[in-house]
Every structure is written in structure tokens, then in C-alpha cells.
Automatic annotation (TrEMBL):
Classification via Gene3D superfamilies: 2-enoyl-CoA Hydratase, Chain A, domain 1, Lyase 2-enoyl-coa Hydratase, Chain A, domain 2
Quaternary structure, from the entry: Homotetramer.
UniProt similarity note: Belongs to the enoyl-CoA hydratase/isomerase family.
The keyword Cell cycle is annotated on this UniProt entry: no
Catalysed reactions, as listed in the record: a short-chain (3S)-3-hydroxyacyl-CoA = a short-chain (2E)-enoyl-CoA + H2O
Coiled-coil region(s): none
Protein name: short-chain-enoyl-CoA hydratase
EC nos: 4.2.1.150
Pathway: Lipid metabolism; butanoate metabolism
Record-level GO BP terms: fatty acid beta-oxidation
Top-tier EC class: lyase
Naturally occurring in which organism (per UniProt): Calorimonas adulescens
Length: 259
């Protein structure tokens, strides 16, 4: 269906791969537009409860936005390209289901930004992560200046962005950029197991918890807490809340139906 995106469903989880391995999965306009469509189709699929995002091949997650496509752009075209990437990554961030980046190799520039738009990040021990844009004469453009600073704090984000340095997976773990580091051959198993564990919980509650956390990052504490009270209340109008609590009282495993 798409040339540069592979989307596979495995039960109630899905794996989306950026698939341009010969260009180390660099993001050109076509790939961003296909990613947009693929995310839309996952969002609309009522069965998928968690999404793993990764890169095809064994070298790269995504080695950035496509430099060949960008090299002759003027200021207006550069801005348009940033807005496209930002819009698609915002869609990824706002997915109703949890998303996990399985960082299987280089995650540079737009690749680091893609991982940052996911809810969680697991890195292979051979991953290399960074924002090398200033080495090319540009700033990050797919929200790296914003999400990296929110994820690791402004001082560490500034060091990474100002130096353009590539850091190891262990260093990324140390600064809180990735949730955990695993051996390369265990990466997909680990990411899928995390997705499956999440998928076994009450989907509406998981989705509302995601929304509350995401909203809370952008607003003051009292606004965030007010939103939390709203979604907490909303949970009590779901069948899954009745099922989850009944199962606890009856000492059995809950069977959630996403309703
Ligand atoms: N865009 C386009 N093509 C890319 C690419 C990119 N970002 N990264 C790698 N490729 C291509 C290479 O041009 C090469 O293609 P050819 O075989 O046709 O020459 C192929 O992928 C393999 O790459 P290398 O030969 O360079 O592989 P290597 O092992 O020597 O180096 C690397 C690997 C260190 C990742 C190196 O490819 C590299 O530095 N890539 C660019 C990384 C980068 O600067 N990313 C940021 C881009 S800017 C950005 O992302 C802006 C934004 O925020 C939106």
C-alpha cells in the first residue's frame, strides 16, 4: 500500500517501520505523507491497542530528514517542510493509543525527533542518537528544540543540539532520553512485550491517562489536576471500570472490551 512505510498488525498491537533502508530511512516528503496516512489508519483501527515504531534494516531507526531533498530549498520551502514534519509528528504524539519507539540504530535529527514524538523509547545497545542539524547549517525542524528540552531538560538539550554530538544508547538512558537499553537481537521482542503488557490493560483508561500526561506537560499544575479529575470521572462511565473492579473483588483476571 505504501512504498516507504510498512505497517504490520500482530493481534492487538501494530508495528510501523520506516522503510527506506538504502537511505538509512531518511524522511523525505513522500515518507512523511505516507507516515501520516499510516498513523491515520492505526488511529481508526479499533483493535490496535499499542503501536511500535521502528526502522527497516539493521543500521538505522531514521538518519534524519532527507538531506538530498532539503539541500536546495529556500526559506519558505524549508518552513513548509518543518510544518509538515511537525504536523505528522503531532499526530503521532496525539495517537489515542500508546506508542513505543524501538530505536534499532541511528536516530539522528528527524529520527531523534520521531522517537521523541513517541510515548516511550527503547534503544538497541548499538543505537546512536543525536541532533546534528547545526553541522548542516540548520536548526532541528521537526520539534526537536521543543520535545528534547521537555524530555531531558533545557541544559542537556542545548548541549546535544549545539554540539550536534551523537550519543550512545547508554548515555541516552543516563539522561532519560530512552526508557531502557537492550541487546540488538532482543529489541523487537522487548518493544512488543511492552506493547502487549499495555494492551492487556483497560484501553480507555490507558488512553485517558496518556491524554492527561500529555496535557499536563503543557499546562500549569492546577489545570493539569483539573483535567485528571475529569478523565478519572469519565472512567466510571466505562464498562471496563466495572469489569476491572468486579474482577478484583472476585479474584479473577479482568477481561477488558474497550467500552
Ligand atoms: N538524508 C538523505 N540520505 C541519507 C541521510 C539523510 N539524512 N542519512 C544517510 N543517507 C544516505 C547516504 O547519503 C547514503 O546514500 P548513498 O549510499 O546513496 O550515498 C546512505 O544513506 C548510507 O549512508 P552513509 O554512506 O553516509 O553511511 P555511513 O555509515 O558512512 O554514515 C551516518 C552513517 C553517520 C548516519 C551518515 O549517513 C549521516 O551522517 N547521515 C546524516 C545524519 C544527519 O545529519 N541527520 C540530520 C538531517 S537534518 C534533519 O533531520 C532536520 C530536521 O530536524 C527536520
Amino acid at each position: 500500500m505504501w512504498e516507504n512505510i510498512v505497517l504490520e498488525k500482530e493481534g492487538n498491537i501494530a508495528v510501523l517501520s520506516i522503510n527506506r533502508p538504502r537511505a538509512l530511512n531518511a524522511l523525505n516528503t513522500k515518507t512523511l505523507l505516507e507516515l501520516d496516512e499510516a498513523l491515520e489508519s492505526v488511529s481508526k483501527d479499533g483493535e490496535v491497542r499499542a503501536l511500535v515504531v521502528t526502522g527497516s534494516g539493521d543500521r538505522a531507526f531514521v538518519a534524519g530528514a532527507d538531506i538530498n531533498e532539503m539541500k536546495d530549498k529556500n526559506a519558505m520551502e524549508g518552513r513548509e517542510f518543518a510544518l509538515l514534519g511537525q504536523r505528522v509528528f503531532a499526530k503521532l504524539q496525539d495517537m489515542p493509543i500508546p506508542t513505543i519507539a524501538a530505536i534499532n540504530g541511528y536516530a539522528l535529527g528527524g529520527g531523534c525527533e520521531l522517537a521523541l514524538a513517541c510515548d516511550m523509547r527503547i534503544a538497541s545497545s548499538k543505537a546512536k542518537i543525536g541532533q546534528p542539524e547545526v553541522t548542516l547549517g540548520i536548526t532541528p525542524g521537526f520539534a526537536g528544540t521543543q520535545r528534547l528540552a521537555r524530555t531531558v531538560g533545557p541544559a542537556i538539550a542545548k548541549e546535544l543540539i549545539f554540539t550536534g554530538a551523537q550519543i550512545s544508547a547508554d548515555e541516552a538512558y543516563r539522561i532519560g532520553l530512552v526508557n531502557r537499553v537492550v541487546e540488538p537481537e532482543k529489541l523487537m521482542e522487548e518493544a512488543k512485550n511492552l506493547a502487549l503488557k499495555i494492551a492487556s490493560n483497560a484501553p480507555i483508561a490507558v488512553s485517558l491517562a496518556k491524554q492527561a500526561i500529555n496535557k499536563g506537560i503543557d499546562v500549569d499544575l492546577s489545570t493539569g489536576m483539573a483535567y485528571e479529575a475529569e478523565v478519572f470521572g469519565l472512567c466510571f462511565s466505562t464498562r471496563d471500570q466495572k469489569e476491572g473492579m468486579a474482577a478484583f473483588v472476585e479474584k479473577r483476571k479482568a477481561e477488558f472490551k474497550n467500552e
